[in-house]
Amino acid sequence: MKDRLLQIEKAALSEILSIKNKEAALEFKNRHLGRKGELTSLTKELGSIPPAERPAVGELINTIRGKIEERVNHLLTGFLNAEREQRLRAEKVDVTLPGRYLPLGKKHPITQVMDEVVKIFSGMGFAAAEGPEIETDYYNFEALNIPKDHPARDMQDTFYISGDYLLRTHTSPVQIRVMQAQKPPLRVIAPGKVYRRDSDVTHTPMFHQVEGFMVDESITFGDLKGVLSAFLHSLFREDMPIRFRPSFFPFTEPSAEVDIQCVICNGKGCRVCKGSGWLEVLGAGMIHPMVFKAVNYDAEKFTGFAFGIGIERIAMLKFGIDDIRLFFENDVRFLRQF
Ligand code: PHE
């Protein structure tokens, strides 16, 4: 038995010298030290030798086992270290390399201006509302006191779809929808797309408006002036000269158009302002009693003002752009500048 053990030890220790990799080392370890290994089965045979010899043989088995285990573990540690070393080398990151450039998207300039307009009015307590872009003749015209023979209804200006349907030509129909659904006091802002058959350097068939209106008991033209002045001074600059000029809209009475001083020539008169020194930025007025009648509001009890802002126009003035079509070509060289 002892001879067999020494034999095994010698064979094992010489075999170890030829092990070249982790897999072979694990296989070796398992074959010699595992539950089905030679040393394990010899331990089981201990019972068949004379009791007096058992302790010595048992100890010898353990010594051999310990020696083999130590050697093979040492070998394994070496293999595992080498493996990890290699993996770390492969995963090495060069922190001195320049970063990769990822193009950053931004909001479209029209969206930026819309957001800013809505934000200024939210600050004054206006709540946002929306309406459909496909409207009926009633909401777009009739309820807004635009009679059947009004030029705004002309096929030249409006995209008619079929029957009663059309693409809304302004955001004013949202006034009607909100007033039908809610009772005063109201402070509402309604941003959205509108459509007109028009196309040149200052007109596109689709553009954006922000409608606003306020209805309560005893709202005056003074409130309209105060709110719109605060808005324009916040949007452009605190000391921007502005003026209210009498105008006409079927759905407001009295009506006004609001101008800011020409941003190109600072009021001296130039090609852009056609020599006047002023640029129109919005239409407004006191809501017409006929409009209140259409939504069953008591025009004796309630008054209100409304206004409509053309967003492309504001964006052109703010950013100094002279061709509205640039907004819709989506040339990234243009869009990146905002
Ligand atoms: N709807 C008008 C337009 O598109 C603007 C406007 C809105 C005027 C509200 C007065 C009151 O030109």
Give structural attributes:
rod-shaped; 12 helices; 20% strand; 41% helix; 7-stranded mixed sheet; binds phenylalanine; 338 residues; BirA Bifunctional Protein, domain 2; alpha+beta
> Main sheet, how many strands, which sense, barrel?
7 strands, mixed
Q: Architecture of the largest domain, CATH level 2?
A: 2-Layer Sandwich
How many domains make up the 3D coordinates?
Answer: 2
- CATH topology label of the largest domain: BirA Bifunctional Protein, domain 2
End-to-end separation in angstroms reads 91 Å
The CATH class of the largest domain, by name, is: Alpha Beta
Run of helices and strands: HHHHHEEHEHEEHEEEHEHHH
Q: Give the uncertain stretches in residue-range form.
A: none
Q: Which secondary-structure class do the elements indicate?
A: alpha+beta
Measured as a percent range, the helix fraction is 40-55%
Strand order across the biggest sheet?
1-4-5-9-8-7-6
Form type: rod-shaped
| Nearest-integer average pLDDT | 92
How many β strands by DSSP? 9
Hey, roughly how much beta strand do the residues contain? 15-25%
**Distinct ligands:** phenylalanine
The named CATH superfamily of the largest domain = Bira Bifunctional Protein, Domain 2
Rg estimate, integer Å: 43 Å
What does this structure look like?
This protein has helices at 2-16, 22-33, 38-45, 54-90, 109-123, 137-140, 173-181, 221-235, 289-294, 311-319, 326-329, 332-335; strands spanning 127-128, 134-136, 165-167, 186-195, 206-217, 242-249, 252-261, 278-287, 302-310. It has 338 residues and is α+β, with helices and mostly antiparallel strands. It folds into two domains: 2-91; 109-335, Bira Bifunctional Protein, Domain 2 (BirA Bifunctional Protein, domain 2, 2-Layer Sandwich). The strands form two sheets. A seven-stranded mixed beta sheet has the order 1-4-5-9-8-7-6, with helices on both faces. A hairpin with a 2-residue loop joins strand 6 (242-249) and strand 7 (252-261). Helix 1 packs parallel to helix 4, helix 2 runs antiparallel to helix 4 and helix 5 (109-123) crosses helix 10 (311-319). The longest helix is centred in the N-terminal third of the chain and has 37 residues, at 54-90. Bound molecules: phenylalanine. Phenylalanine (PHE) binds next to strand 8 and strand 9.
